[in-house]
């Protein structure tokens, strides 16, 4: 059996503290992999700290294995993942966070599963969420529950971005070049057989999470808009529903006027109805606007990221199998 190459794609945003620990752990794991070798693709997502310098220092001692891509500013983890996949040359590609929340010790098992069981992707799934604020866990749970109801793409509760993919799956993910990326959805959308390896949640080794609560809310809204058009249907439904209600009211008022005459009372109820309908209209307009906004950004076809520097040459890229 020939030695196969595994590319480890690591998006890094302000990870100067975590990176040396990450590299050390991964090097330990590397020795346990059979018939396989690792190349690292560190993607510096416009970090404000010394992340790039740390990567370069690591690369100096391990030139053949360590490669890096650096962005001109922070473009977000999704863009970093995309760039990493583009620059990876391996037969298999793994995507991993730099903070060691994705346990490297799972790699040997993932590799043997993907080799022997005919899967194209071995994903990972957190079965516990210890160390996370309970509010965040609660909302995450609700998110997966509802997302699966309103979207045809499957969303696995607790699934991480941490996964090992075959080359053909990577090419499929790269072929989805939309700007508004929600990778978890894209991984699932491209299809192929995926097996989810369960594991217990781990806390970050160093540095801190770049996600705020509202950041996550926004991220989930992105997911909804990217993978479902149900909110639009919902908006039309509200429209039709209030139209029917108004017809019933109309009949009621006409009949009442015929039977009892028309004393000019009832303006408070009128104002209430005005406000309610106005509110619903704005709400639905907002939903439509969200989709329109996303469409607008998508039609600009801006690149997903701007490259500042990389050590990868075109020859490296040609080594892609
Ligand atoms: N990350 C990134 N760009 C960003 C934010 C995060 O590349 O704009 C990277 C970060 O360095 C880490 C991974 O994405 O390797 C996951 O980030 P984080 O640990 O903050 O997220 P959490 O684990 O809390 O969901
Ligand atoms: Mg993390």
Task: Explain this structure.
This protein is an alpha/beta fold and 321 residues long. 50% of the residues lie in helices and 16% in strands. Helix 2 links the parallel strand 2 (36-44) and strand 3 (66-71). Bound molecules: uridine-5'-diphosphate and magnesium ion (MG). Uridine-5'-diphosphate (UDP) binds next to strand 1 and helix 3.
CATH domain class of the largest domain: Alpha Beta
Tell me, what's the shape?
A: elongated
* CATH topology name of the largest domain: Spore Coat Polysaccharide Biosynthesis Protein SpsA, Chain A
Strand content: 15-25%
- Label the structural class: alpha/beta
What is the compact description of this entry?
With 321 residues, the chain is of the alpha/beta class. The protein has helices at 18-30, 51-61, 77-87, 107-116, 134-150, 167-175, 183-189, 213-227, 230-260, 267-299, 314-318, and strands at 4-12, 36-44, 66-71, 92-95, 121-126, 159-166, 194-199, 307-310.
Observed structural traits:
321 residues, alpha/beta, 16% strand, Spore Coat Polysaccharide Biosynthesis Protein SpsA, Chain A, binds magnesium ion, 11 helices, eight-stranded mixed beta sheet, binds uridine-5'-diphosphate
């Amino acid at each position: 059996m020939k030695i196969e190459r595994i590319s480890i794609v690591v998006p890094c945003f302000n990870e100067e503290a975590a990176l040396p620990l990450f590299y050390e752990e991964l090097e330990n794991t590397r020795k346990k992999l059979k018939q396989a070798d690792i190349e690292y693709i560190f993607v510096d997502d416009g970090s404000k700290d010394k992340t790039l310098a740390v990567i370069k220092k690591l690369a100096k001692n391990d030139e053949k294995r360590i490669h890096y891509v650096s962005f001109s500013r922070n473009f977000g983890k999704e863009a970093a993942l995309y760039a990493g996949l583009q620059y990876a040359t391996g037969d298999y590609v793994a995507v991993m966070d730099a903070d060691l929340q994705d346990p490297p010790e799972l790699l040997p098992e993932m590799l043997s599963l993907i080799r022997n069981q005919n899967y194209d992707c071995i994903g990972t799934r957190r079965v516990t969420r210890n160390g996370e604020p309970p509010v965040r866990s609660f909302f995450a749970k609700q998110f997966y529950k509802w997302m699966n109801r309103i979207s045809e793409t499957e969303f696995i509760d607790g699934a991480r971005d941490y996964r090992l993919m075959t080359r053909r799956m990577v090419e499929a993910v790269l072929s989805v070049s939309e700007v508004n990326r929600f990778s978890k959805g894209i991984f699932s959308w491209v299809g192929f057989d995926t097996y989810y390896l369960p594991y217990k949640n781990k806390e970050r080794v160093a540095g801190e999470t770049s996600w705020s609560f509202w950041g996550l809310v926004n991220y989930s809204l992105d997911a909804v808009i990217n993978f479902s058009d149900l909110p639009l249907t919902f908006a039309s439904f509200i429209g039709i529903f209030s139209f029917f209600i108004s017809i019933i009211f109309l009949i009621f008022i006409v009949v009442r006027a015929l039977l009892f005459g028309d004393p000019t009372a009832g303006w408070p109820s009128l104002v209430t109805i005005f406000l309610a309908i106005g509110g619903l209209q704005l709400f639905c307009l907002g939903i439509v606007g969200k989709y329109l906004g996303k469409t607008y950004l998508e039609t600009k076809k801006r690149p997903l990221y701007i490259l500042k520097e990389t050590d990868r040459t075109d020859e490296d890229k040609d080594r892609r199998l």
